[in-house]
Write the structure tokens for this entry.
Amino acid sequence: MDDLIRLTAVEAVRLLRAGAVSPLDLIDAALARIAVVNPAVNALPTLCADRARDHAHRLLAGQGDSGSPGWLAGLPLVVKDLTDVAGVRTTYGSPLFAEAVPKASDALVERLESRGGLVLGKSNTPEWGAGGNTFNDVFGRTVNPWDTARTCGGSSGGSAAALATGMAWLATGSDLGGSLRLPASFCGVVGLRPSPGRVARGPAREPFGSLWVEGPMGRTVADVALMLDAFAGPDARDPLALEAPAAPFLAAAERPQPPRRVAWSPDLGVGPVAVEIAALSAAAVRRFEDAGCVVEEVSLDLSAARESFQTLRAASFATAMGPLLEHRREALKPEVVWNIEKGLALTAADIGRAERQRAALVAKMARLFETFDLLVTPVAPVAPFPVEQRWVEEVEGERFATYVDWLALTFAITLTGCPALSVPAAMTASGLPVGLQMVGRPRGEAALLSHAALFEGLTGLATAVPRAPDILA
């Protein structure tokens, strides 16, 4: 069982395709691991083993589109608890939906299941995905596998912790201001925020919204590429959905290529970074020079992202959740109430200004990519912090006004529409993971994955996970 858990997703799928291992074997291995590890981290509060086994039997009987480049061949995976899975308890981390069981799955779940993915359970998330620390009043806190007194990040924290502990080979995440990238960094795994439309979703209350996206999470860059192939393709429920690429993303990840020129920005001009994180990140990006790449520090000022993102994010919350505030305000956590109220108070002038700021940020990135192939920054300004702390209030003497401000390194990139990936880069003196944020050209996931795979090979950190249960005791 331990040997199966330690397989990468790519390795496991190859064995499944060859008939050397059964989907049922992997389900049993994952459930055994979950029984040992999950009590220590609380990453997977809801399991659906019988549903996964039923799906496995259908696949073994010859049902499924095995010709797809993203064919997962019966690989178990977990789905973030913000995403509907038919017949499985889906709470959104909210007491209002603590016992909700949707009748239909989200489009992305249907896509994964049609391509041979087996949903084994739901991963924990903050209430409505709001915040960089995974806790809620339904299931409680999810903790960091590297130090269970610290946060795993959020809002895809349950997915990241499940991957880091070997309870899953692949997991879904979603990302608005960094909800996929931050927990990947804090837990020492890989998470990709794709370009808007790369992963079809729906039905959605905001179908043309481009700030929040769904994306893949895995232990390696190649695993994430495999899952992105499984996601890829249009869906009538998503007007932004893109066609699948001609060449699989996995092919790009398995042929690592060095970027010619790497732009390194230590802070994007958006705020402070803790001294240790800044030093580790600056040293890590220089690993590209070992492969003959030119690494150049750039003065990139994306400070307008602070106002723009806060405004556009608030507008999105008001669009999606305004009715909940009106009818069930008392059941929403303070941060969610603040988001919705801020959105409802916006004027057309406020939104217009934010959109103009965003347009200027997009133009800056376009100019950057005329010269560079890749932009690299820290993912987070701090290492994983105590799990009891709701959010980061201060970094290097600078205090933040809201629970969102400390996430500026990731939400600034959100506004640009560029794909961005968190990949393990270093360890702090106290043994906590640090990720680098790698940013590619719009719709440039293939090149981004190829460059990140090269970096991953230079660091060797992909072998640090999964974490062994005795470390969690």
User: Anything to note?
Assistant: The chain has a mean pLDDT of 96.
